[in-house]
Amino acid sequence: MTAVLTAGECVAPLARVSGSDLRVPLVQGGDRTYVNFDCAASAPALSQVTDRIEALLPTYSSVHRGAGYASRVSTDCYEKARESVARFVGAGDEQVVVFTRNTTDSLNLLAGCVPGSTVVLDIEHHANLLPWKNSRVVRAADTLAETVRLLVAELCSRPSALLAVTGASNVTGEVLPIAALAEVAHRCGARILVDAAQLAPHRRIDLEAWGVDYLAFSGHKLYAPFGAGVLVGRRDWLDDAEPYLAGGGAVRNVTVESAQWVSAPAPEWASAPARHEAGTPNVLGAAALAAACDALSDLDFDRVAEHEAVLRSRILDGLESVDGLEFLRLWSDAPDTVGIVTFTIDGFEPGEIAAYLSAEHGIGVRDGRFCAHPLLERLGRPDGAVRVSLGLGSCSEDVDRLVDAVRTLVGGNRTWIYAKEGGQWNPVPERRFLLDAQR
Length: 439
Ligand code: PMP
Fold this sequence. Notes:
By secondary structure, this protein is of the alpha/beta class. The chain folds into two domains: 23-44 and 300-428, Aspartate Aminotransferase, domain 1 (Alpha-Beta Complex); 48-298, 3-Layer(aba) Sandwich (Aspartate Aminotransferase, domain 2). The protein has twelve helices and 19 strands. It has helices at residues 47-56, 69-89, 103-111, 144-157, 178-187, 207-210, 235-240, 283-299, 301-319, 350-361, 373-378, 396-410, and strands at residues 23-25, 31-33, 35-36, 95-100, 118-121, 135-138, 162-166, 191-195, 214-218, 229-234, 251-253, 268-269, 325-327, 340-345, 363-364, 366-368, 385-389, 417-421, 424-428. Strands 4-10-9-8-7-5-6 form a seven-stranded mixed beta sheet, sandwiched between helices. A four-stranded antiparallel beta sheet has the order 13-14-17-16, with helices on one face. A two-stranded antiparallel sheet has the order 1-2. Helix 2 (69-89) packs across helix 8 (283-299) and helix 10 (350-361) packs across helix 12. The longest helix has 21 residues, at 69-89. The protein is globular. Residues 102-104, 125, 127-128, 166, 170, 195, 197-198, 218, 220, 371 line the site of 4'-deoxy-4'-aminopyridoxal-5'-phosphate (PMP).
């Protein structure tokens, strides 16, 4: 692991991630080391994660039903992965860890288990807006304090089963006061689910201390891009609901009669987590996610927060005086923000800025509406924005390249022409070749 903050102005990467020395072609010729400022979408693998996967591959085998030695090793690894996740989030004894594909999958799973209506804010990612079948959407106010007050009013106005809220906004990075919201939800007779897709990679989570009932996050945003996510939560709703997927592993015993369970008594379903994990599980995904949880815990979240706070301030300071540039934020009183900076620049479309940063500078950012259309609408940016998201592999040199590139663009000194075709901005002509993924 590399040093945290070096002397003076220079900030080094906090951890080793895959792709840190990737060279990418530039449209004007030559190549540069890639700057990955799209970690909020998917984060590169931590070296501890890739090491763990490599070590497991020789014993990779079927999970749960095999008597062979490799199968036993894989089963043990899969079940131990649950323990790592439970430790990472400070789960209580009554909370189970269910492996899923990603946050979206976890939230859809829970949506099938909620015995009543769900209250959500209008700032959520679509994954935490659309799955709830019986939802009431509260419009966030201009301050966090007033937003919490509106949530309390809605939760207590009618019986509510669940408050489903993000831990940190995927658009602005602002962190919500989860312990306070858990207290509010419980006071109004509801439970709380936290969509931790953007919180888990950046801040320590403590379900027991915060009083959080359910939590969902994705491995691919937690430096474990091997296709697994988790839902952690209280057992009772999970055990009372029908299995998320019906099939092998989710059931204790099946008869011909119970297989026709629409017209006959249902089969004897297993309890959670197996109840919601039918089919062959993604053992390597679970192991990768667990390795990332262990590595992040070892790294210490205070250092993670410090690293990204310094880099984020450097971006804000560097871009603040750029003509026509405006940062997006929701609340004047948000106490904390993860490593995300989102902005628009007058006179440039977000997609045009992103295409330019990629083509001429080898910098990867995200543009668009970030699967949060209602939020972009309320922020007055229905056409989207540019999001810069930092990760453990980010450093001050990356930030300085971004700031210089944006200043060059606004100063009228880009060297290429860009055009929008089929809704997407591209350099014209496009001279870059795509690296051969089969190499
Ligand atoms: N919630 C938030 C806050 C997110 O940022 C995302 C991903 N952009 C999701 C949910 C969905 O995550 P996934 O695509 O891994 O299911």
